[in-house]
Amino acid sequence: MMRVLSVASECAPFVKTGGLADVVGALPRALTAERVEMRTLLPGYPAVIAALGSDAAQIAELDDLFGGTARLIAGHAAGLDLIAIDAPHLYARTSGLYSDAHGHDWPDNPERFAALSWAAAHIATLGAGGWHPQVLHGHDWQAGFMVEYLHRMGNEDTRSVLTIHNIAFHGIAGAERLHALRLDPSRFHSAGYEYWGNISALKAGLIGADALTTVSSRYAEELMTPEFGLGLDGVMRSRREDLTGILNGIDSEVWNPATDPAITPYSTARGKAANKAALRAEFGLPEASGPLCIIVSRMTHQKGLDLVLEALPALLDHGGQLALLGSGERGLEHAFTSLAEHQPNVGVRIGYDEALSHRMMAGGDAILVPSRFEPCGLTQLYGLRYGTLPLVALTGGLADTVINASPAALARGVATGLQFAPVTAEALRNALTTLCRLHADPSVWAKMQRNAMAQPVGWDQSARAYAQLYERLIAGP
Ligand code: ADP
Ligand code: GLC
Q1: Is 89 in the pocket of ligand 1 (CB under 6 A)?
Q2: Which of 95, 289, 313, 438 could cross-link 101 (Cys pair, CB 3.0–4.6 Å)?
Q3: Which ligand 1 atom is at minimum distance from the Cα of 374?
Q4: Are 177 and 296 found together in one domain?
Q5: What is the pLDDT of residues 260-297, one digit of tens each?
Q6: What is the DSSP string of 85-98?
């Protein structure tokens, strides 16, 4: 068995703000079949400590982990082998993982996640309860310093992988924190972790890790362009040889319409009718002839929901409906809430609700994902599995996972959804019109649903790709 420590700031089902948590929670199980023993290192947020319960064993003690003592505790929860950093001075906080109750980032976030990287390097170097990982697999900027700290601890043996889930977050800290963050000042320059005069945790990882991955092939290409690289495209181009795209899968037990306890289960799309009726009732929507579209999303600029506000008449004018579940930017929340107040065919729930998201996947006809950029995206994959056809922007993982209903794809009988480009309200409007036209032809729609539900969206292939990557790294150059 290969020994790999996954290093992440969130993990489903314990703590989640987005798809990163789903991936971190699902990957270890998917990797068991590939001869990988993966343990997961997490900050000891209250929810993580609670999940470990009283059976957790202390495996190490750190005298000074960025301002206080810390214990590493290990145990099992939800089928995962976890190591948590029990450091109350850093993680024993209510409200958000990254921000306070007002949505402001915790001022000590650089130290909170430097501590995550530090603990990872510590485990790699000294072992944890006799277990020595051969590879550190970090996720996003929160794991960015792990290689800096491996060097600092004199560890040249442990290999490292950094996965980019979203390059928009750089993990920036002011240069005055250099010593507080235990960084080597001689690497504070443009070929190191320095970024426009500041410290960037993400850049440290992008430069230092032995291998880089991101969560779709298309996004791997996009990252090397100024439009999507968001200031780090040059760094990405310099690491072209070491960068691969490995597509996310979904947890096919949690997201299985045939066994999902949150819905009226079904194994063919015909079984969606009862769920659709229930969803309409739940959102107070009347009967209608057009498609019932759903959105389950963080409400941020990335997700392009402002375009939906503009393009929506194209759906409503054709008898379509919209049910949205999301939370995020206040302006978007208000815009959708007031739309729903005036428009009987629009229903909106502001908040975060896992069970409702399942009911929506089961009851919707189509799911809209009009993202400006999308490294992978998971909700379109849930949509495919539930026969809820994805209408997506042609970008990142959305481009890689949906087969657009072009005349050619329809003629060949392979289409699974719709894609639109460029990512503008006008293109979305056209796509919504096409969606309504396709929906009005029951045999075409049913064929697309069958295709969608048959498309593989699990982890098998991608787990193999990660395992092969670890294998190459362990084997050495
Ligand atoms: P991102 O990570 O960029 O937010 P993904 O599509 O990869 O996008 O993952 C989003 C995850 O969060 C999915 O599991 C989705 O179902 C879930 N999600 C997003 N918003 C909500 C919400 N308001 N309620 C329930 N689940 C949500
Ligand atoms: C990020 C991306 C999303 C991806 C998820 C998991 O949050 O925005 O596209 O699916 O990470 O990799």
Answers
A1: no
A2: 95
A3: 3
A4: no
A5: 999 999 999 999 999 999 999 999 999 999 999 999 99
A6: EE-HHHH--SS-SS
Name all residues whose Cβ lies below 6 A of ligand 2: 18-20, 23, 165-166, 215, 248, 374-378, 397
Q: Are residues 186 and 44 both part of a single domain? A: yes
Nearest to 149 by CA among 173, 181, 101: 181
Q: Is residue 384 part of a domain?
A: yes
For residues 310 and 193, what is the distance between their CA atoms, to the nearest angstrom? 41
Residue to mutate (ligand 1; options 296, 324, 354; most atoms within 8 A of CB):
296
User: Which ligand is the nearest neighbour of the Cα of 247?
Assistant: 2
Distance 466 CA to ligand 1 centre (A): 23
Distance from Cα 17 to the centre of ligand 1, integer Å: 7
Give me 293's structure tokens: 């579209």
Establish if 262 belongs to a structural domain: no
Residues 326 and 242 in one domain: no
The pLDDT score that the predictor gives to residue 477 is 75
Question: Per-residue pLDDT tens for 156-180?
Answer: 999 999 999 999 999 999 999 999 9
**Quick one: pLDDT at residue 132?**
96
Nearest bound ligand to the CA of residue 379: 1
- Report residue 55's pLDDT band, with 50, 70 and 90 as the boundaries: confident
Range of the domain at 303: 269-454
